[in-house]
Sequence to fold (580 residues):
Amino acid sequence: MTILSFFTRASRAFNGHPAASKLLVLCTISSGGLLAYAESQSNVGSPIVDPNQNEPRKKRVVVLGTGWAGTSFLKYLDASAYDVQVVSPRNYFAFTPLLPSVTCGTVEARSIVEPIRNIIKKRNGEIKFWEAECVKIDAANKNVSLRANFDKNLVGNKEFSLEYDYLVIALGAQVNTFNTPGVKENCHFLKAMEDAQKIRMSVIDCFEMAVLPGLSEEERRRNLHFVIVGGGPTGVEFAAELHDYFQEDLVKLYPMVKDLVKITVIQSGDHILNMFDDRISTFAEKKFTRDGIDVQTGCRVVSVSDKEITMKVKSKGEVCSIPHGLVVWSTGVGTRPVVRDFMQQIGQADKRVLVTDEWLRVKGCEDVYAIGDCASISQRKIMEDIFTIFKAADKDNSGTLTVDEFRDVVDDIIIRYPQVELYLKSRHLQDVTDLWKDLDGSDKKEVTVEEFKLALSQVDSQMKSLPATAQVAAQQGTYLSSCFNRREHCKEHPEGPRRFKSSGQHEFLPFRYKHFGQFAPLGGEQAAAELPGDWVSMGHSTQWLWYSVYASKQVSWRTRVLVVSDWTRRFIFGRDSSRI
Ligand code: FAD
Fold:
């Protein structure tokens, strides 16, 4: 699955190479690994720095995570203004939307990752990277405990801690198994690069096993039954990739079992891709039916064993089991243990993910920010502040609000409560004062507080939480870095909307998400896309749009060239089925 127009901002972050460096990077492709080597050489001889030894004069910013959110924060941060340290157990950024392509060898794993040290070395200040896992966040003492997971034989401090002035939590999410028995033990996940690589090997194992002598037809069928749990964008894209892999490549290599292969998608909702426009869901279901992919909707998986997957058919209440060779579990995201532990400390134990305000500050603690999949913005309801807004707008204290008085505050209201704009759009209202007309059809010049409340009473129904996508994560990272870069300036010259509860203005504008659309590749060189303005596009041309968007949104020229050459290689030679 994918998104459209991957994130204008993120792309800007990753595209700004001067022509000379593009050329240099291109040269490195042929000399494989030269870049990494050069990086390692540039560190030779530099002093080894203990993170807590330096007495920092600048404010210390610790960033946890090098995914979409963390990386886009680092790309834009003016690192010269802070003492910045980044922590992640993986020393690379992975372009997750292409992970399904890695599972079948359409693109190679290394083509979609960029070493984090390549990214941070381009910043004008020094950013330190520590390859370690955060095991504890202690907001009271402003420090994080870290553990490096290296080979046992390596010597050195594997556990250490960092103190911070500002903490940016960009830890992403983990797979949500909904505590379904047997899932952790018997299913594959598709969340990280290692998962995609494991799936690639396991798919080939299933075929090699199925052709061994001495197996019954039933056993061969079982080995070649690929089940995907979850009909969201990732599950659907993986099913489509697998189908193409089989039809285009494996069928020629394993002709003896070509009639025994089966792909099943199990979806608990009534349709696959149900977060997309109905036309896309229908198109995808029809395409899968034509391709022979079995889509079982309205079924909830209750357990998974090494041989069978058991599910409940919601409409009939029946429980049935189907044998499988490989199961990929792709049903949404859950909270990482370190984040869950932190949420308990700050009184957010009852929440699903870390809750922040519109400025991405974690609620309930100081100087901690959370961005990306690990966080969710709690949007302020206009109804909570309705009387304060009325009072602030009613300048002459007359007890009624005139059109002019309302116009004076309306821009601030729309910035502070973006749901107002969405509500106006949903009701096709041109002007906010149309809300009053909407109330009783009359052309009122003034409203009382009760009328004002009634006019805005439905506005909060437009509040929606943001999806867990790279598009959101990247925009949040960029937004937060711009706040950090202007922190000092904005203290003196606040740029945000007026404070209705107190005097003055907020320092910054609140975060605003801009949706650029979403893709769903469906296999057979066809894709569907939902583009801004309710525009839906499906078919072969959309697949070409997908290729161009994904090529352009690569994190570096190096990965862009690698990905495009992988696609070309696949067209010419097919996918590589070696079990490596
Ligand atoms: P992540 O990108 O997951 O990054 C989390 C970071 O935290 C990683 O660097 C990780 O190593 C690090 N980390 C984890 N634990 C620790 C720890 N204890 N200590 C320190 N660091 C830690 N979104 C789209 O918009 N479009 C798509 O097409 C799309 N396709 C997808 C396809 C797949 C297969 C998947 C899995 C996701 C896809 N997404 C897509 C969703 C997108 O990848 C996520 O929304 C995005 O990665 C979230 O970014 P993040 O920075 O919050 O988390």
The mean pLDDT is 87. The pocket of flavin-adenine dinucleotide is lined by residues 1-3, 64-70, 87-90, 96-97, 99-100, 133-134, 170-172, 190-191, 234, 336, 338, 372-374, 468-471, 473 (CB under 6 Å).
